[in-house]
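Predict structure. Chain length: 297.
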Amino acid sequence: MHSMEAGGEQPTAIGSVEERSRDVVMIDIFNQRYPDFPTARATGNLRKTKTRFAALILVALGLIIFVQYATRNMKQVPEGAQNLLEWLVEGLHRFLEGIIGEHLTKRTFWFFATVFIFILCTNWVGLIPGIGSVGWGHRSSHGFQLDKAWLRGANADVNMTFAMALVFFACWIVWALQEVGPLGFLKELFAPKGQTTGLLRLLMVFVFFAAGCLEIVSILFRPISLSFRLYGNIFAGENMMEAMSRLVPGFGWLVPIPFYFLELLMGLVQALVFMLLTAVFTLLICQQEEGPVPAHG
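Prediction complete.
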């Protein structure tokens, strides 16, 4: 340790600020003296969530501005931003229609298209240089240490992904009740499938009732699996980019460049996976069981 008189460096921050903010200092003190104290960690997590929420607001405003710009002067032959928007919407509509059918697409397209575009844009915005790497911090013997980023990737926070999964879960229940009704919902879970009679019918009733109980557990865990799948992949990518930037001193800007292309692809894949899983879950509960085909004389 170097003393202040021996040339030790004072804590600094981006923007020529000489001292760290008081709340950051208090959090550090709590974490050092009371590592098991939950308030310190909760406060730090809240600070990170606030910066991710700010990035979320920027993405939402950017999408709203783009849509308003693209549709401000609609033309019969689209061009520019209108052409891009129509290509994206029509492509998603045809893609979903081939998976869940025309009827369900008309009912649910607004959600699936919105969640795909939103997740994609949020993932890609998180890759912009400066997101998660510019903010308040201090200098140490290992270089500049970031304490509070101004913006962070929204989907690298499990609160955001879990909130989207809960919104889907609520929509899923509403769509299921609208399509098959409460009785059809229960029949889809517990009723035996196929044409059986006698003792085999009783056995199938017991088997499908047990399978329905397991299906309820699976349904309750779907929001958790959806949220952690998206959060885990985006958070891992964010950490990988940070590790690559520190791998070679002096070339922190060069080493992560190849990984940017990987993360661009990963952002697209994760948005597509989230949309596809939610669409398939909806299809499984909303599809009507077809009756036996009548024989022709």
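Summary: The first strand starts at residue 135 and ends at 140.
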